[in-house]
Design a protein that fits this description.
Strand order of the largest sheet of chain B: 4-7-10-3-11
Number of helices of chain A: 26
Structural class of chain A: alpha/beta
Shape of chain B: globular
Radius of gyration of chain A: 34 Å
Oligomer: heterodimer
Number of strands of chain B: 11
Structural class of chain B: alpha/beta
Order of helices and strands of chain B: EEHHEHEHEEHEHHEEEHEHHHHH
Strand content of chain A: 5-15%
């Protein structure tokens, strides 16, 4: 947790730290302890506390709307961020589990004004109905104010720390909430603060004007009683007494017999609004004790006796997508750049449904490889000896096979030859690893000029995919660890998404977040995404279908789009390639981190991108320099764009797809040569790659071509 | 030191059971060779000890043992509980109240049966030669006279070591020594044991108890004390500690220990707040830092947090924020 001396969150926390995803992320750090305390408060050891799109409570689960936390952060209170997360969560738990106003009883006759008809014999109604009938909207507002404070005082009695956070939050808003308000508002706020015990009476007295002060002074005994009340109906009884005091001091109008019902209702609604508007500037919002409408919504949400989330499966539902998106963003790792900036990166798997295009994708890959001259003769033939050389070097140094065990003699004697070597404590025994990062933004799908003057086709992403495929296939053949990832900035797809679910989820999330978070919705739904297509530990056979499918989508984007419109429930989410500027530096830093963590000695990161980063070229250049400086060779290949020249120390720019092979060969060769030079072996590798015949192990499809 | 029995009464802290009055045990001077040593091993009653029910339960079994209804055999009691729940302290206090010499024998993975039972050892005869003599092991030595033997950490010793004790613990009620001697379980010897639970917690060296060995014990669980019990313990031991400190410490310990016991990994911590922390370390911390602006916070940082795994710190601090947040600035003691 942060220092306890920190205060004034609004000033201390930078804007991005007050953003909802940071607030939720911070809550998740304390979520375990919050659940613990909530279980003690409720006496239910199986209680779950979860975040959701709307607050509700049942026997087994309390769901809290994370938007409630953010409201608490806006206050200038001497509390730390974690304390705020804790207190606002417990505040919500207390109200959700304590609010039950559904018990029916006869309406006490003395609550009713003289001009109102008496209740029928035997008639029983709920407390909120009784208050509405007896005192109208002002009675309801006053009841919720007192009940809110009563629940907090009693519910948090055993947790004075959490209660003191609420106290600080309320007191920090008190003076401003009272300023310029009418006596009725001041009286309501004073009742709330008194019942909750949040401010000493002598201090409160000084903040009130003469009329509200006089009414409050007359109410002191009733308020003391309300603090100790044990039953909502008792609170209702005390509310009616306070209402009478407010009327006696002319804070609330006496109803006249000649009042028109409509005019009377309007006046009462205005009085209620005055009471709650001011009070809401002090207290934290909680739907269970806000007003009757909110309370009924909460109770309806809790009607399911099991308390479980019975929302439809994700394929068919749209509600809650905003919250799901919020949680996804909150949990995304934060990537720190060398220039001190940072950003969230959504690391997600590529939707599996792209495999459905794999058959066509393989055929298209074969054609493209032939057309663009990206076959293994150019790539594999020239790089193969270098890879082999690296592997030999590794074996000689004992790095790949491990070190000779000090017990080698015993192991040999026992016939345990395979245990002669001890493994090093690294995650890989291989000497080098390759990571390929492909720009997956919509601009890569824009038509570009080919060799013929008027021949314009969207070859950018397709060429990049082909390059990734070629390198991945070769790495697989040579047993080199490799990883392929796609990056873009858009609404993040999930692994089981189809075009149908993806577009519906995106629309629902944007709509929900616009309602709850206004202008922040775009930022929250357009995330920087890192789609891991094939991870280091995954066999290539598990991913090649995916890459083939993605290649087909890239090479035949129009056809893919038509298919998606025709049968969206079966088509992969082709619309994930949205137009949105990437943040390359976050992806480069993250991919390089994965390479380093993998443990290989010689590391090559190939980035295939088409243009500007949304961040800055300087930031990208510094990130690349930092990665380069730590021993990972970063090769930037610009597809039809020369931004890579400014950002990458090792770069190639291609303006035609057939140049890709040359670029990759040159770049990777340079990286491998650098790896060999580390061991002083920089001469023998200069051996021309021999042209391979039809027995290609790297692209078997070419054999049959 | 009186050699004559006196009366001691055990009361049920829940109030539901009738008080049990037992005679204390008199160590028979004539029957035991190491009388003086044994007398010195009778523990003193801890004036600050609060029985939360375990002594009463022990006394219930003791009463039956003394009445010896037909067909009964001596039962041996083992207490299982997490660290810092006061298991050994309970047994020691039972020995103190009954005035039984108390032998606490820790079992570890390194303990072997010869350590417990005894072995033949070589001694110099002073003339350049040696002679072999039998030397009692820890348990055998204790069994030769009036004693309460506490085999602590029962499940730390290997099963093959404990097999040697099977005969002692069952109807046979005797220990056969390798030298041919049989040491019977005396009427005035009581066997107790303690152990930590063998779950996923980090109790290095423990293992699941052999079923046959476990079957020779009555195993009772000892939970962490609840909030009122901790308050009572603090009040008893530190009567001058201000109420607000007692309340805060008790609440903190209770909440953290509930988290420790949670089966839900999302709300669980790996380190509990032991009674040693509550009754020893934190109060001393309050004494040390009594002049600080927030003595409880300073004691918490100095005496509690250093024991915690790094990944539990957030949880501990959140519980602190909920239960205390700003500790009292009053002096912890006095007034």
């Amino acid at each position: 947790m942060t220092s306890r001396d920190r205060s004034l969150l609004a000033e201390i926390l930078p804007l991005e730290e007050r953003a909802i995803e940071s607030v939720v992320g911070r809550y998740q750090r304390v979520a375990g302890a919050v659940t613990r305390v909530a279980r003690t408060l409720t006496g239910r050891e199986d209680l779950r506390v979860a975040l959701g799109s709307s607050s509700r409570a049942s026997e087994h689960e309390v769901v809290i709307d994370p938007g409630l936390f953010q409201a608490a952060y806006g206050r200038r209170a001497p509390v730390t961020a974690e304390e705020t997360a804790l207190a606002s969560a417990l505040h919500e738990v207390i109200h959700l589990v304590s609010s039950d106003f559904d018990e029916c009883r006869p309406l006490p006759g003395h609550w009713l004004p003289d001009d109102q008809p008496r209740p029928k014999d035997g008639e029983e109604i709920t407390l909120l109905e009784a208050l509405d009938r007896a005192g109208g909207p002002p009675a309801e507002a006053l009841f919720f104010a007192i009940e809110d404070a009563r629940q907090e005082r009693q519910g948090l009695e055993a947790y004075p720390g959490a209660r003191s956070v609420l106290e600080d939050l309320y007191r920090s808003s008190l003076r401003r909430a009272l300023a310029g308000r009418g006596p009725l508002t001041r009286f309501t706020i004073a009742c709330f603060m008194s019942v909750g015990g949040y401010v000493p009476p002598e201090h409160l007295e000084r903040l009130l004007d003469s009329r509200s002060g006089a009414a409050w002074a007359d109410s002191r005994a009733v308020l003391d009683e309300a603090s100790a009340a044990t039953d909502p109906w008792d609170t209702g009884e005390l509310t009616m007494q306070l209402l009478a005091i407010a009327k006696a001091h002319s804070l609330i109008h006496h109803a006249r017999p000649d009042d028109q019902p409509h005019a009377r209702r309007e006046r009462e609604d205005a009085e209620k609004d005055a009471m709650t508007d001011g009070l809401d500037r002090v207290r934290l919002f909680s739907p269970a004790v806000q007003d009757a409408d909110h309370y009924n919504e909460v109770r309806q949400g809790a009607e399911d006796p099991t308390g479980l989330d019975h929302r439809p499966a994700r394929m068919d539902r749209t509600s809650g997508e905003g919250t799901d998106q919020l949680l996804m963003v909150s949990q995304a790792p934060v990537i720190y750049l060398p220039n001190g900036q940072s950003g969230k990166l959504a690391v997600v798997p590529v939707p599996d449904s792209f495999r459905s295009f794999s058959h066509r994708g393989r055929a298209a890959l074969m054609n493209a490889a032939r057309e663009w001259n990206v076959d293994q003769r150019r790539v594999g033939g020239e790089l193969h000896p270098l890879f082999i050389a690296n592997q030999r070097r590794g074996l000689r140094s004992g790095f790949d096979a491990g070190d000779l065990s000090p017990h080698a003699a015993l192991l040999l004697g026992g016939g345990l030859y395979q245990r002669m070597f001890e493994r090093r404590s690294v995650s890989t025994r291989r000497s080098y690893a390759v990571s390929v990062l492909v720009d997956g933004s919509a601009s890569m799908l824009q038509p570009r000029r080919l060799s013929a003057p008027r021949d314009r086709r969207p070859w950018g992403l397709a060429a990049a995919m082909l390059g990734a495929w070629t390198l991945a296939a070769m790495c697989n053949e040579l047993r080199v660890d490799f990883e392929v990832a796609l990056f873009n900035r858009a609404f993040a797809a999930q692994v089981d998404d189809t075009e149908w679910t993806y577009s519906r989820r995106r629309a629902a999330a944007i709509s929900e977040l616009r309602q709850s978070h206004g202008a922040a919705a775009d930022r929250l739904t357009s995330t920087v995404n890192h789609y891991v297509l094939s991870a280091f530990h995954e066999p290539w056979r598990r991913s090649d279908d995916l890459l083939a499918g993605l290649f087909w989508t890239a090479a035949h984007s129009s056809e893919a789009g038509v298919e998606a419109r025709r049968d969206p429930r079966r088509t992969p989410p082709v619309s994930l390639f949205e137009k949105g500027a990437n943040v390359d530096e976050l992806n480069v830093t993250y991919a390089a981190g994965r390479l380093v963590n993998h443990g290989a000695r010689v590391r090559v990161l190939v980035v295939l991108a088409d243009g500007m980063t949304r961040g800055s070229v300087e930031a990208l250049a510094r990130s690349v320099e930092e990665v380069d400086g730590r021993g990972t060779t970063v090769l930037g290949i610009g597809v039809g764009d020369d931004t890579v020249v400014s950002a990458y120390r090792h770069h190639q720019v291609i303006s035609r797809p057939d140049e890709l092979a040359n670029s990759m060969v040159a770049g990777v060769r340079m990286a491998l040569r650098r790896g060999l030079a580390l061991d002083g072996e920089d001469t023998w590798w200069i051996r021309a790659g021999r042209q391979q015949t039809g027995s290609s192990p790297l692209m078997p499809e070419l054999r049959s071509a | 030191m009186p050699d004559q029995p006196t009366k001691v009464t055990f009361t049920d802290p829940t109030g539901s059971g009738r008080p049990i009055t037992l005679d204390t045990v008199a160590v028979p001077r004539s029957e035991v060779r190491d009388y003086e040593q044994r007398i010195n091993k009778i523990p003193e009653p801890d004036p600050h000890y609060v029985d939360v029910g375990m002594l009463y339960r022990f006394a219930q079994v003791e009463k039956i043992r003394r009445e010896q209804p037909d067909g009964t055999v001596p039962l041996h009691l083992a207490v299982r509980g997490h660290m810092g729940t006061g298991k050994d302290h309970d047994i020691e206090q039972f020995a103190a109240l009954l005035r039984l010499p108390y032998y606490r024998i820790p079992l570890t993975g390194e303990v072997r049966d010869i350590t417990l039972i005894g072995s033949v050892k070589l001694y110099g005869d002073g003339l350049g030669g040696t002679e072999s003599r039998w030397e009692d092991g820890d348990i055998t030595r204790a069994l030769r006279g009036t004693a309460l033997v506490n085999l602590s950490e029962l499940n730390a010793a290997g099963a093959e070591t404990l097999f040697a004790l099977h005969g002692l613990l069952d109807r046979y009620a005797a220990l056969d020594l390798p030298n041919g001697e049989t040491v019977p379980l005396r009427e005035d010897v009581r066997l107790f044991g303690t152990m930590n639970p063998t779950d996923l917690r980090d109790y290095a060296g423990t293992q699941t108890l052999n079923k046959a060995f476990a079957d020779r014990w009555v195993i009772w669980e000892k939970d962490f004390p609840d909030i009122s019990e901790i308050e009572a313990m603090l009040d008893r031991r530190y009567p001058s500690m201000r109420d607000v400190y007692v309340r805060h410490i008790s609440r903190l310990a209770t909440e953290i220990n509930r988290s420790f016991l949670s089966t839900d990994p999302g709300t669980r911590v790996e380190t509990p707040i032991s009674l040693r922390t509550v009754l020893d370390r934190l109060p001393v911390g309050l004494m040390v830092y009594r002049e600080r602006e927030d003595p409880l916070r300073t004691a918490w940082e100095a005496m509690v947090l250093p024991h915690i795994d790094a990944y539990d710190i957030d949880h501990y601090e959140t519980v602190w924020a909920a239960c205390v947040r700003k500790g009292p600035s009053d002096p912890p003691f006095g007034g």
